[in-house]
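$ ./design --mode recover --in tokens.txt
reading tokens...
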């Protein structure tokens, strides 16, 4: 690598953490091995009509068997950190009770392998693969699920806490609650807004209870966090109606999580906007004290902004790009229309707007001063293809990453405390309702042969991670 030319590059703080991310069900496969039982995503994906093309995570990237090769790829990338998730049904096959040693062993080997390469493991406890047995007992709308999660968190902390210093409780509880139980485009595919709100509360409670377990068990100096897919909501105009539509969507997109987790309250307007669905009696005395736990940083996932307008007569919109559903994920979304931005889009149809990330970081810093931020996911799907020479050239992804990292740098320069950035994703993988049709990886996966082919974005990102500097878009090392 050449030293970055200061005139042609912008430099990140020396201790800025560069990483990539994956999630268990999206990459592991081996769904029936070593005692693993079905998760809600196994059942959902095996239900005809749910996932595009009938794809399932049965094999995925076969990472459960190819983890050593994947560690080698991570080593070549030169990243300082790797964010992975632990599959609950490998650890507790029935969703409760003692640990399954073989499940623990898999993550233990992975963690040891990362540490040997000098890569910091960042463990997420829940990236959507709830043990099916717990769904049958009521799933996230049932309060008991939160207590089961805390027990599971304790088991994983006991097993890996001596080596994993950085922990995340939940990944994107918004998706678990409102795509899983509201629009039904994610597992378990239920469509009831009252259940979705109950699920949101029990996910919040699960987070708080799990943080307590982690704090009790982890050595001093461990970092505990949660990852939220905060929505950067943009009203189409400054009209009072559009602003009110934005406020209502912001309530169940963002503040129903940040309120209790970071401020110990459920915002009054969120309760009022959803009063036609529930009396919120599922929030018991003392719950918000459990949910509000000091965090070492907030994980933020960002892909694209959310454009909203007031729409008389509007209502059931599928706006999340996660498949076709007649059900809306938004409990307070009556009379709100979701707009598509002009201009370039990714293969998901999501508009490309790096300034949305800057604005989002500014907001978090303003509303939650003193809370460090890590960008735990950012990236894009494009229609990548293997060329005749065997290479995968993805200039659009480099452009996307360059644009977003420039905005992260601008936020840091303005005083926002951003500590790290994780590219989603290390590998092409099972993209939930879209199956294998969407490729987010820095590394291409041939699903016939399981061959891994680093894309040109992987080489570009490796240079960024190694040097801590952002070259111009075209200064691509070969
Ligand atoms: C993440 O989900 C996941 O953590 C990861 O597993 C996944 O593979 C990756 O991103 C790519 O999808 O405001 O209604 O338009 C991101 C899910 C996508 C949910 C954008 C919110 C916009 C909702 N998010 N979506 S809306």
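writing sequence...
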């Amino acid at each position: 690598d050449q030293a970055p030319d200061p005139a042609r590059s912008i430099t990140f703080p020396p201790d800025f953490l560069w990483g990539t991310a994956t999630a268990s069900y999206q990459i592991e496969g081996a769904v029936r091995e070593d005692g693993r039982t079905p998760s809600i995503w196994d059942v959902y994906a095996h239900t005809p009509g749910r996932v595009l093309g009938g794809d399932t995570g049965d094999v995925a990237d076969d990472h459960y068997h190819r983890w050593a090769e994947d560690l080698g790829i991570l080593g070549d990338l030169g990243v300082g950190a790797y964010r992975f998730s632990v599959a609950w049904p490998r650890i507790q096959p029935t969703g409760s009770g003692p640990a399954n040693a073989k499940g623990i062993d898999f993550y233990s080997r992975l963690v040891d392998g990362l540490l040997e390469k000098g890569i910091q493991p960042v463990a997420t406890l829940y990236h959507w693969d709830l043990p099916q047995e717990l769904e049958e007992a009521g799933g996230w709308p049932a309060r008991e699920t939160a207590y089961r999660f805390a027990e599971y968190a304790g088991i994983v902390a006991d097993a890996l806490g001596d080596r994993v210093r950085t922990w995340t409780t939940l990944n994107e509880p918004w998706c678990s609650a409102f795509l899983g139980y509201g629009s039904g485009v994610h597992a378990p595919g239920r469509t009831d807004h009252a259940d979705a709100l109950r699920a949101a509360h029990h996910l919040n409670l699960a987070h708080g209870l799990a943080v307590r377990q982690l704090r009790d068990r982890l050595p001093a100096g461990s970092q505990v966090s949660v990852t939220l897919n905060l929505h950067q909501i943009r009203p189409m105009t400054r009209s009072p109606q559009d602003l009110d539509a934005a406020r209502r969507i912001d309530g169940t997109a963002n503040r129903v999580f940040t309120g209790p987790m970071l401020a110990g309250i459920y915002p009054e307007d969120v309760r009022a906007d959803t009063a036609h669905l529930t009396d919120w009696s599922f929030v018991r005395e003392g719950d918000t004290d459990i949910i509000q736990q000091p965090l070492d940083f907030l994980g933020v996932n960002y892909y694209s902004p959310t454009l909203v307008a007031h729409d008389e007569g509007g209502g059931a919109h599928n706006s999340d790009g996660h498949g076709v559903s007649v059900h809306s994920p938004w409990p307070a979304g009556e009379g709100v229309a979701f707009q598509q931005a002009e201009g370039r889009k990714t293969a998901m149809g999501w508009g490309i707007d790096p300034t949305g990330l800057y604005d989002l970081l500014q907001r978090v810093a303003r509303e939650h001063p003193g809370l460090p931020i890590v960008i735990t996911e950012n990236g894009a799907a494009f229609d990548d293809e293997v060329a005749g020479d065997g290479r995968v050239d993805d200039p659009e992804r480099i452009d996307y990453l360059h644009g977003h990292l420039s905005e992260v740098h601008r936020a840091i320069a303005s005083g926002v405390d951003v500590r790290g950035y994780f590219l989603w994703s290390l590998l092409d993988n099972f993209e939930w309702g879209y199956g294998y049709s969407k490729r987010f990886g820095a590394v291409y996966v041939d699903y016939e042969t399981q061959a891994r082919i680093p894309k040109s974005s992987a080489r570009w990102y490796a240079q960024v991670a190694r040097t801590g500097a952002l070259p111009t878009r075209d200064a691509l090392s070969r």
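exit 0
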